[in-house]
Amino acid sequence: MPTASGHAHGELRRETDMLDYFDTNPKPANLDRQITLARTFIEQHAKDGRRVALVTSGGTTVPLENQTVRFIDNFSAGTRGATSAEYFLQAGYAVIFLHRQFSLLPYSRHYSHSTNCFLDFMTHNGAGAVVVEHEYQHQMAEVLSRYREVKRNNTLLLLPFVTVNEYLWLLRGLAMQMQPLGAKGLFYLAAAVSDFFVPAERMVEHKIQSSEDFHEKAGHGDGERQPAAHMEDKRLVIDLDPVPKFLKMLVDRWAPRSMIISFKLETDPAMLAVKSRYALEKYSHHLVIGNKLNTRKWEVLFVTADGGERWIRVPAGRRTKGITGASGDAVEDAEQREPAVEIESIIVPEIAAMHTALINKWESDETRK
Ligand code: 9Z3
After folding, report:
1. 63 C-beta closer than 6 A to ligand 1
2. pLDDT tens per residue, range 34-49
3. Is the CB–ligand 1 distance for residue 38 below 6 Å?
């Protein structure tokens, strides 16, 4: 068991790591422009008294070279984030959608990527025009009107990232901008963020050469560490540093008055509840949503600070278009089927209700002061 002073020491180290991080890893070139867009967006909605949710979505990359040819990626299609963003908008929130470039987006997600190519929804009408197939008219009309409303009200801001470095700079910058919202700000961290990375000081400039005849000499000089990715005896060796614990900084420093929800992704069922509870206790935020890779569209585990653990489940549903022959239990068949309802349509209203309760509590605490 770690001692109390061990804990304190660990906390201090985590904070120092994170502060060092921004001194030693370069600010992304377009950060200021993205933060300015966010500031204008937040100011508009703060004036209207609207709640603002920062939804993160998609996986972060870890480049191995400055002029990047190779990189490590984290799994995420962006379905959780893009779908949840739609339900937050439906619940009256303004949404900053911090997403991996080219991952799924709210609204267009219904008609994009490999399983839902938009061309499959179109047909010729016989009079020279291209129109939406009759069977999809109703659904598309609904998506279109929700999309148009969001555009009209300017309630959705799309901000892309690619690398874990861009993600961390953006998360910190956006959190600072959201501070004036107080309790009306909400963080919904569905992005799959790398736990390991190549720090700037250990990054090589050019493409790593695989042929021995062209190897650069490893190491730069006295006391300097090897580049994180380098060749050794025809083998590529990758030696990554841990990403500092940004969630701790978010909760304690960057967004102390906001509601914060993180996701925990596991593949081993035995680890899910334990690791979710561990994350909640370590960072002391409001909610951890545990999910397993294979069943994430069917069931999630809500773990809350009051000790509660609650599964949210949706019933088995329709088969994914184009896939035949799948049968049996929906959870076992997870990759072949789509659930009957989107689980985010249950998750997000639950969170909005918890957020209302928190806002009310904070407001009554304020008036009692
Ligand atoms: C999740 O667990 C998301 O629900 C998924 C969504 C990535 C599984 P898809 O985009 O998948 O619908 O395909 N996100 C959080 C994953 C993560 O990196 N969590 C960190 C951790 O587990 C904490 S912030 O340590």
Report:
1. no
2. 999 999 999 999 999 9
3. no
